[in-house]
C-alpha cells in the first residue's frame, strides 16, 4: 500500500534518531522502558540473556551497554507501562519488518498472533 | 512421566549433571563418559552446541542416553535454529521418548570457534517455552493439530550472577509463567549473589512453582579456572578465587575444595531443589563431591525418599 510506505518513512524519520528504531513493524517500546529491544544483537523480546557482562555491557558487543539493562532501569521510572516489562511478548512476525508499526497498531495487524501461541497462553 | 519429573513433583532432592560433549567415538564414547557419573545422577543434560562450538547434537546424544538406560535432559537453544526446526526437534525428541527439555536462549555465535556464523534467535527462551507448551496442548505454533500431544517436563535456565541482578528473579518468574517446571542456574562464583537470588525467589513463592537447581563446576587445573573466568559469557569469577587456585601447591584439590564450598553453601539456601554438576575431571569427581556433601547414591536416595539434605 503506497500510503503506508509514506507513513513508514515518517515513522522511521522520527523513531530512528530517538530510539534507534529498527522498524520491526510491531513496536513494543512502551513495554520495554522506551528502549528498542531490536537493538539487542540477539533481538530478544523478553529480557536480558544470561551473557551480560559483570560491568553491565553486552556479551556480543563488549563496548555497548546491555539494551535490556537500560530497558529494566527505564521501565522502573516509566509510569503506567513500567510493569509491562514482565509481560510475555510473542515471537516477532518477520513479515512485518520495514512496515509502519503505527499502521499495524491501527489495523490491529500487530496483534495477529499464531493460533498455537494464543492456545498456549490460554492454558496458563 | 520422566523419573526427573516424578522425583521433583514428589519434592525429592535431585542431582543432574552435564553430559560431556561428544565428537567422535560413537556410542562407546557416550558410555565411557556416562559411567563414572551414573551412580549419583538422576538426569543428564545433553548440551546443544555449548559455547557456540559444534558437537554431536543434543537430540542424538539424548537418544543414545535413553538407549543406555540413562535419563536425558535435552537442551534446546535458540541460536542455531528457527522456530520450525525447534518444533521439529521437540516433536522428534518426543517420538524417541525424551520428555525433559530445557529451553534456553543460548550464548552468541561470537562465543565460539565459528563466529562468522549467522545467529538465528528467531525465538527467545521464554517464547520457546511457550511454543513447547503449545505442542503439549496438541498444536504446533501455527495452530495445526498434533495428535496425540507430546508430554514434556520443561526446564529453563537463569543466571543469578550477572546484571541486572534484581531483575533475574522476575525473568525466572516469566519463565515459570511461560511453562518452565524446573530451572537450572548458571555457575555462580559469587555465593552472595546466588543467595540473594534464592532468597528473593523463595519470598515471592517462585520456589513453590518451579524446582530451582544451582550449578556447580568441578575444575581441575589453573587453565580450566582461567578459561571459565574469562571465556564463558556471563560468568564472573572473583580474582581472589582465581588467585587461590594459582597459589595452591596442587590446583586439583583446591578446585575441588572450591566446588565443595560453593555446593554446600547452595544446599543451605531456601528452596534449593537439587544440584547440577559440571565436571571437567576425567575421574568420578561428581561421585567424590556427592560423597563429601553427604548426598547418597541414586539407588539409596530412591529407596529412602531422600529430600532434605543437610549441608555438612
Number of strands of chain B: 9
Largest sheet of chain B: 9 strands, parallel
What is the arithmetic mean of pLDDT of chain B?
95
Radius of gyration of chain B: 19 Å
Oligomer: heterodimer
The SSE order of chain B reads HEHEHEHEHEHEHHEEHHHEHH
Low-confidence stretches of chain B: none
Spans where pLDDT lies below 50 across 5 or more residues of chain A: none
Number of helices of chain B: 13
* Whole-number total of structural domains of chain B: 1
What's the total helix number of chain A? 4
At CATH level 2, the architecture of chain B is: Alpha-Beta Barrel
Structural classification of chain A: mainly alpha
The number of distinct β-strands of chain A equals 0
Outline type of chain A: globular
Largest sheet geometry of chain A = none
Shape label of chain B: globular
Structure characterization notes:
Chain A has one domain. Chain A is mainly α. Chain A is globular and about 45 Å long. The relative contact order of chain A is 0.18. With 312 residues, chain B is of the alpha/beta class. Chain B has a single domain, classed as TIM Barrel. Chain B has 13 helices and 9 strands. Chain B has a 9-stranded parallel β-sheet. The model of chain B has no long low-confidence stretch (mean pLDDT 95). Chains A and B meet through helix 2 and helix 4 of A and helix 5 and helix 6 of B.
TL;DR of this structure?
The complex is a heterodimer of chains A (124) and B (312). Chain A has 124 residues and is mainly α. Chain A has helices spanning 2-19, 67-77, 101-106, 115-122.
